[in-house]
Amino acid sequence: MPDNIVVERDGAIAVIIVNRPKEMNALNLATMLELDRIIRSLEDDQSVGALIITGSGEKAFVAGADISEMADMGAMQAKEWARLGQQVFSRIENFPRPVIAAVNGYALGGGCELAMACDIRLASEKAKFGQPEVNLGIIPGFGGTQRLTRLVGKGQAKLLIFSGDIIDAQEALRIGLVDRVVSADELMVAAKALANKMIAKAPLAVSQAKLAINKGVEMDSESGYMFESEIFGMCFTTADQKEGMRAFLEKRKPVFSGQ
Ligand code: HXC
């Protein structure tokens, strides 16, 4: 059976590669289930400090959900498909360590939604983004109406979703859909450098900061501040807080244990 998803390890980084290059890495059911299984197993693997998600080949990150599989779906099946994808992408969003999307080419429909489920989007200058679902008589269904709106605001989200326009990496950077653009050659090097930078920090602090941002943004501000202060206090129960502050005062580099 072909591997629709390939996982490569580079030190503490796990690189997840969507591997259907002939189909522009389109997500079919088998691929989505494989992705789900892999994310679950990496969650429990404490040797993994960060994930990078990318697409196989030169042209595509992920060109969306697999249209040939969706064409004859009924309403119930389509809804279940959307729910499955939403759940897998939420699992990625809530992965306890940083997740970087290294967007190497087309990130369309479900592919753009996958990138948006990651913490940070690094794009090659060749990357292209869009939610072209309206061309197919459907709407985004893996969380795009929600995540895109939160990322770029209602106006830009509606502009992309109503028009089906495909935008380049620079425009995606301008509207806040991507966080950094690099040359195609540099993409994986830059993604790994960023991942390693984060891995070198106090791991619990990074994962708790992720929690504070992800959960806090869903709350009203006052609840968000309360949640932040709870987590801030909890940091002071960790060995890494003692080590980080002691190292600063002793003018040396901290050695974090992740405890
Ligand atoms: C199935 C796909 C596909 C997709 C590409 N392919 N995208 N198959 N699902 N999403 C297949 C093509 O059919 C083709 O197969 C092969 O990949 C190469 O694609 P080409 O179109 O020949 O390449 P090119 O001309 O370079 O165009 C690339 C492209 C275009 C711009 C990415 O393929 C495209 O527009 N794809 C569809 C993008 C899209 O609409 N995505 C949103 C899907 S809906 P053959 O066999 O001919 O070689 C969605 C909903 C998510 O994502 C929510 C669900 C709940």
Automatic annotation (TrEMBL):
Pfam families attached here? ECH_1 (PF00378)
One biological process term from GO is:
fatty acid beta-oxidation
Ranges in coiled-coil conformation: none
Keywords associated with the record: Isomerase, Lyase
Q: Which SUPFAM superfamilies match?
A: ClpP/crotonase
Q: Which GO terms describe its molecular function?
A: hydro-lyase activity; isomerase activity
Can you tell me which family this protein belongs to?
Belongs to the enoyl-CoA hydratase/isomerase family.
Q: What is this protein called?
A: Enoyl-CoA hydratase/isomerase
Which species is the source of this protein?
Thermosinus carboxydivorans Nor1
